[in-house]
Design goal:
Largest sheet: 2 strands, parallel
Radius of gyration: 17 Å
Oligomer: single chain
CATH class: Mainly Alpha
CATH architecture: Orthogonal Bundle
Distance between the termini: 27 Å
Order of helices and strands: HHHHHHHEHHE
Helix content: 40-55%
Number of strands: 2
Number of domains: 1
CATH topology: Endonuclease III, domain 1
Strand content: under 5%
């Protein structure tokens, strides 16, 4: 009899969620563009579930030109209208406007010689923080570190980067290992 895989309960039984949990969530990302894309998607998640965003992720990538900040920063009214009409994504005017503004903030950092990955990982402590939770009830919604990260991102012009969103993003990008201790991924990431 095959041993049952133990994973974090939030993954549930949805195949996409399980695959995401098993292959992506909590794996350290050090590429600035990939980190930025995940931050944008976590901003769209505000008030919604990650499952909703995950199932729309490819539509988001198509709609937002592969999350190329050089293209997004040039979006005008026609692009916003196109995005607001796209049923494949979350049609929130404030989140779309934040994405355009966040592209500007990301590029401004680059132009100032500040690498997004170096900046964010520097605040995170340079390496993944490994927590040892045994229950989802132990996992905080935000931490001191996510509060600091949120403030620093806001100083640079980012929107939809409150400490709760930032902590979820830090978990997703591997800055924090919040897999449960009994999850098969805990020791792997």
């Amino acid at each position: 009899m095959a041993k049952e895989v133990v994973r974090c309960a939030w993954a549930g039984t949805d195949p996409k969620m399980c695959h995401y949990h098993d292959t992506e969530w909590g794996v350290p990302i050090h590429d600035s563009r990939s980190l930025w894309e995940k931050l944008i998607l976590d901003g769209f998640q505000a008030g919604l579930s990650w499952k909703t965003i995950l199932h729309k992720r490819e539509a988001f990538r198509d709609a937002f030109d592969g999350f190329d900040p050089e293209k997004i920063v040039r979006y005008g009214k026609r692009d916003v209208n196109r995005l607001m009409a796209n049923a494949g994504i979350i049609r929130s005017a404030s989140k779309i406007a934040a994405t355009v503004g966040n592209a500007r903030a990301f590029l401004d950092m680059q132009e100032a010689g500040e690498d997004f990955a170096d900046f964010t990982w520097g605040i995170a402590g340079g390496k993944p923080l490994r927590n040892g939770w045994v229950s989802i009830a132990q996992v905080p919604a935000q931490t001191e570190n996510s509060v600091v990260m949120s403030k620093e991102l806001k100083k640079r012009g980012f929107k939809f980067v409150g400490p709760v969103i930032v902590y979820a993003w830090m978990q997703a990008t591997g800055m924090v290992n919040d897999h449960m201790k009994d999850c098969f991924r805990y020791k792997k990431v």
